Hints:
Oligomer: heterotrimer
Mean pLDDT of chain A: 88
Largest sheet of chain A: none
Structural class of chain A: mainly alpha
Distance between the termini of chain A: 31 Å
Shape of chain B: elongated
Strand content of chain A: 5-15%
Largest interface: A-C, 60 and 74 residues
Number of helices of chain B: 17
Amino acid sequence: MSTTPQALTRQDIAKVGLLARLALSEADLERMTLELSKIVDFVSMLGELDTADVAPLAHPLDTQNVFRDDVPVASLSTAEALQSSPRHDGECFLVPAVLGESGAA
Amino acid sequence: MSHAPYATIIGLEVHVQMMTRTKLFCGCSTKFGSPPNTQVCPTCLGLPGSLPVMNRQALDLALRAAVALECQIAPFTKWDRKNYFYPDLPKGYQISQFDLPFSSNGMLEVVDPKGALEPCRVGIIRVHLEEDAGKSMHDEAAGTGDTRIDLNRAGTPLCEIVTQPDLRSPQDARTWLNELKLLLDYLGVSDCNMQEGSLRVDANINLHIPVPAAGGAADRVAKTPIVEIKNMNSFRSVERALTYEAARQWEDWQATKAEMGKTPKQTRGWDDAAGVTRAQRHKEESSDYRYFPEPDLVPVTVSAEHLAKVRDSMGEPPVQLRKTLAATWKISPYDADVLINQGRDLVDYYEELARKLGDGKVASNWMQQDVLRILNETNGIIQSFPVRPAGLADLIGRVVKGDFDTSRGREILAKMIISGRPVDEVVASLGIAAVSDDDVMALCRELLAANPKIVADVKSGKEQAAAGLIGQAKKKNPNVNPGKVRAVCIDLIRGMDSRQAER
Amino acid sequence: MQPLELSAVDLVAALRQGDISAVQCATVFLDRIAATNGAINAFLAVDREGSLQRAADIDARRKAGKPLGALAGLPIALKDVLCTTDMPTTCASKMLAGFRPPYDADVVRRLRQADAVFVGKTNMDEFAMGGSNENSAFGPVRNPWDLSRAPGGSSGGSAACVAADMAPVAIGSDTGGSIRQPAGLCGITGLKPTYGRVSRRGLIAFASSLDQIGPMARSAADCALIMETIAGHDPGDSTSLSVDVPRYSELLDKPLAGVRIGRVPEHYAEGLDPEVAKGVEEAFAVLKAAGATVHDVHLPHARYGIPTYYLIAPCEASSNLARYDGAHYGHRCKDLGQAGRGAGSAGGGCESPLVEMYCRSRAEGFGPEVKRRIMLGTYALSAGYYDAYYAKALRVRRLIRQDYLDAFQTVDLIGGPVSATPAFKLGEKTDDPLAMYLVDLYTVGTNLAGVGGISFPCGFTKSGLPIGFQLQAPPLAEPLLLQAADRFQRLTDWHRRRPKSLEAKA
Lengths: 105, 503, 506
């Protein structure tokens, strides 16, 4: 599978920025577009290799079937759970209002 | 066949919580209804450095469900990350299954026990295992502009069941969901409680509309854009929502002739109070979940031995059990259906009752007319019904034998329920004593002597007149079996000669 | 006795024998930290009070004849990527400034149980992303051998801390070379174990299929001692190996006769500093003289290591760092309602307050390198690009792993440089991200293949900078790695040298 060198556009970067939930200033967008284009170009050299018959290696281990028993274990206290939360009300984490539909389709 | 101007095509996506004690990837409890954020740990909170470890029981329950749904079980399965940002998803990704779900290609059929309707066969595309998200609570009333997040539910094991679009009516959808719920209850996989969120349904629906062609060309089928409906909180809502949406799409079609493929798939939320579906806010960007293999979990292989063990642990599914029950206990398919639909615990009770009584039909009658009635009246469940099968069998046996009539029997049962005491004690406490045959005979002679007119009526062929003796008999001795009295009196009257009757 | 000059092995013995108390020992190192950290910035947090308390407790228990752990009283520094309940854990990022985890990493738990004394958390490249420790939100670390130079990264603080005698042992983490490369640039010994040998629970994840925790110290013998405590199966880490832990210390003193060491011709391309090349050759000569044989082996896909790594690691990182969104912990931006002012999106800034919170919190909390990698990873995983980038990299990874497995059919170890150059100047590579990525040239293969690697000093440049040598081994061959390095260190004394620049300042 060949990977032709991609010249990433500013629009590509802006789109990725939103997907990654990173606010990017104009200067950021400018710089990122250049830097990422270079990097993507560099990593595209993998396209030189014919890997049609090679399976992906997601884990360096050969292990399978690691489980735990369905036995309850002590949980954190609510205080511990909330201790690092930027905003909470003693019971729940607080975030800006989420209106309408849930996150996942 | 229907003469509707369109066919309704429905597919369902069901999320079912597995009935494990702990979450899918950590040892936190899955108990429902606890105070917020009391069943959380670094793993389900998504704290930095936390890692998941798979719950063996969750996989086994999921396997059970998939086997019962006649799915093919993948010998090798893996886990994937579904990446998106939402406050009820603390890691910023959900551990789920993408391209290699542990099962696929199954089927669940619903058969009408009365045989009046066609069986409804619904194909199952896939069943996979994933973790649940937490809960977002938006307090409109407080008006603070905050959403409260409770992560107790985050990490609960879910089976996602995706059907083929094989359902053809909202009623079918509801019936099918009931059958699914029954099945999963029988398997001990899930309690499928929509109110508690252990079963959630999204539906996909569109219409296929035959469009007659002009000028000799072939007719074709126009398909309306598929709509996904969310936020249905009960099976009844599912039926109502689908009914509404089908009608809405039909109106829309007539107005716009918009077909599938030309507009993007829409998501609409069901508003149960208003009885309508509403288009949901258009998302900023279409979801790109960037699935990739979960590096923190190793793959799972399901061996033939393991699968055999799962099958062995399963027991019969409802569709099989209906037939078995009817055949074993010689009851009608209708009766079997009524009992099966109450769930496995009630069926277990029934079978023990029938076994002890030696009569499935009588047992079934008492179950339906008495036990179920009482359970409905008291909102109780069979597990806590105070009279156990042995005690009930004892009581019913005596009614059948003729020790008391049915209404007396009900009285005794009611007292047994309240007191928790067995038949003998209740009978004694109610002052019911068995009436000997001699006593019955003596009582009947008394009655006949006191009621010459009734005797004469019966003699002249009006046997129903004997009923007038029953009230008197009961007054003299409340413990007497009215049926017996009636029979004995009629016998006596028949045996009398005219001289005795006239005396 | 000078605790600063003792090896960890000897210190532990001295403590056990009562030649020095735990309090005395901790005090010496804490004073050393106080005197030198200003110049080096190796530590982000120093727990003077806590460690002295702990040391006092150990002394009391020892006096009372109570049993003590194997490392009782040994001061240890922890890379700030490891969760500790009693000290902040920041990953050198503003995103986690002041963050206190409610749980200890498994390695931390084990070391605590062994009665080690944690003197503090060391500086690092932010979220372990970097090769020079210049990506820290709390200032760079300076190389104790030359304060104008970088110590390497991302475990730069841990490496510098050991090199400057601020602690006898430090724990680091290695995803693409982050233990071995800074060890090489700082003249100390660092071990990256086989993937799965040490639990990752409580290690703040950068790239989950590549990360490993390992010891950094002055010698292989010291690393062996620490490995006995930190290695082992953890049921809380699904990728943790269920294999017994050898008594590494007892396996050290073995001759090298019969050990076959591979030399990879592809390593000696242009770009390799001539003094480094010379140091490496001399190291091979020492090993040969010790009885090993050296053979050419090829790692045909070695040159694809960097692009493969710089796809897999950022992809996994982009997902691992999604949890830092200001919602449940970490930095959250203030004053929402600024959406539209460059909150960067194709939609032109009409996001909800929630999305604004995410975007701004993350933009404020993460440094430029972290953002770069998140963007790269997100892009490479996104719809339409997955096959060409991430999936492709996973396939090449298998080729790279196969190269190693093939090579290990004919040799027992692979030797070579750990870094193409000695320590470079601060600021030298920061303008060009790609140039910085290339510092991992010799080390990424080890992580991609999941095998173990150790680096230790094999010489010095004319200007007095350490030169590092690396050995890589088949899976679970840590004993052999440690034996070979230990044998080398019995025959040479590079590892005993100390930077002079600090003596003048101390």
